[in-house]
Design a protein that fits this description.
The strands form 4 sheets. A 4-stranded antiparallel sheet has the order 1-2-3-4, with no helix packed on it. A 4-stranded antiparallel sheet has the order 5-6-7-8, with no helix packed on it. A 4-stranded antiparallel sheet has the order 9-10-11-12, with no helix packed on it. It has no helices and 15 strands. It starts with 9 loop residues before the first strand and ends in a 6-residue tail after the last strand. Strand 9 and strand 10 form a beta hairpin. The radius of gyration is 16 Å and the shape is globular. The protein is mostly beta strands. Helices cover 0% and strands 45% of the residues.
Length: 193
């Protein structure tokens, strides 16, 4: 499939949806839950309705400079360093302690201003302006990097890390790059990651 011709600033690939960020700060999305479209809950997940193949524009309400896609839940970072979230925030994994479905990005007011964002499948992270790493979501295999329950909807700092400049998350593993150039990793090592 070939999309309409747009200059793309960044892409985000979730479990069942795809996001692109345009230089204007607008977003386009394809796919299922998390794409910003309302999905019929009775839809067969083994078939792809034609409507999911066509992009929609997500009205962010804020000019975004970064996006990150998880499993139905997304993070965005505004040009003034505010973290926003949208999608299926069941069991509080959107960082807002509520079970809601948001079609458009809403600010996560329980987080500091951020430099970077990352999404795993059910886990999320930001790097604040001081280089501190905050994580939240499901803590399967210790992916949050801190001692907490398996489900933790509240963002908190990962202790004992130097100042971090970059973060990458998957379903169960995290890799953080310090400002000195060292790589730190934690979470699942089921496939040698």
């Amino acid at each position: 499939m070939r999309a309409a011709s747009h200059q793309v600033l960044q892409m985000g690939c979730g479990r069942d949806h795809f996001l692109v960020l345009l230089p204007s700060g607008k977003m386009m999305a394809w796919g299922g839950i998390g794409s910003g479209r309302s999905i019929d809950s009775s839809a067969d997940i083994c078939t792809t309705p034609a409507a999911l193949n066509s992009p929609i524009e997500i009205n962010a309400g804020h000019k975004l400079r970064l996006i990150s896609a998880g499993f139905g839940t997304n993070l965005g970072l505004t040009e003034n360093n505010k973290v926003v979230s949208w999608g299926n925030s069941s069991i509080g994994i959107g960082g807002n302690n509520q079970s809601v479905a948001l079609l458009t990005p809403a600010p996560l007011t329980n987080l500091p201003d951020a430099l970077a964002i990352a999404s795993g499948e059910h886990n999320f992270a930001i790097i604040d302006l001081k280089g501190r790493l905050y994580t939240w979501g499901m803590n399967v295999d210790g992916v949050l990097g801190r001692h907490t329950s398996q489900l933790n909807a509240t963002p908190d700092i990962v202790d004992d890390l130097p100042s971090i400049q970059s973060i990458s998350m998957s379903q169960g593993s995290v890799f953080a790059l310090s400002k000195e150039g060292s790589i730190y990793s934690w979470g699942s090592n089921s496939a040698g990651q």
